[in-house]
Structures are given as C-alpha cells and as structure tokens.
Amino acid sequence: MRKKCNLVAAVALLLTASLALAAEKRWVSSEGTTLKTEASATSDFVADLLVGTEVAVVESGGRWLKVRTGVGKEGWVYAGRVSETPPAAEVAGGDDPLFGANLQKSQINTAKTDSARSIRGLSPDTEKYAKNHGTPELYKRSLDGILARKVTAQELRAFLKEGKIGEFAQGQGGGK
Description:
Oligomer: single chain
Order of helices and strands: HEEEEEEEHHHHH
C-alpha cells in the first residue's frame, strides 16, 4: 500500500510539474522572430511570429525555448526574443527619424522623455550652445547623417550574425 501511495504521489508531482511548464506563457517581443525546427539560428524555418504573439513553453533548452503557438505550430525560438509579460500596444515616439516605425514595434520599456532625449539629437538649448561656441558645420552634418540612417531588418540580422550576437552567439548553451 505504501508503494502505491508513493507511486500516486510521484505521478501527481510529475503531472503538476508538466502542467506548470505547459501553462508557462511568453509573448514575442522582437520583430523578425521566427519559429525554428531546432534550437539553432541556422535551423529550418517553421513560421514567422509577430510581436505580441502568445506562445506556450513546451521545453527549455538553454538560450532557446521550444514553444507552441495558439494555432498549434511548434518549434524553437531564441529566448531573447520573447518576454514573460505581454508587450505594450506601442512605444511612444514613433516619428523618430533614427528608428522610425521600428521603435513603435519594439518592446523597450522606457519613458517617452528618456527615449526621445537619447535618440532625437540636440535639444534646442544644446543646439543654441553649439551655435554660440562655434560647433563646426561638419559635426552638425555628421549628426544629421546618423539621424537620417535607417537600418533594415536584413542589415540588422546580418550584423547580429557577423558579430555572433544574440541567437547567433556560439557557446554558452547556444544549442539545445
């Protein structure tokens, strides 16, 4: 009888652990996230996942998570591209010249004034100071050029891959 109770307790514990893992939800937080057949950036493509898509964690493999979508697709996603909380509808400041619409799709949790201050270039006071102190036109043109730069999804992906950053990093549990 004691063995039967231990077996029932063990099964109950396993069932509880399985349900807890199955109930673990995550949300896609990065544009360009793809579901893969294996825990590797170079594995075959299963599906594109839109920002805000809810997924259920099936298995954890280091920096990769095996997930199931609401429409029943299953595969691996890089853990850095999902969040434990649902994303905000959008981030304020979408008219930014540097990031444009991409900033709205980002799930960076910053205050509007902080993000605007850091990416919009010179404030009126700073610009006035620069003019009064003879900041060379070359610097202004350089800053304007940087602020006008747009980065495509392909350029960003190539940069991450070349630098072995994020899901393209090697070692440290990069695989399953």
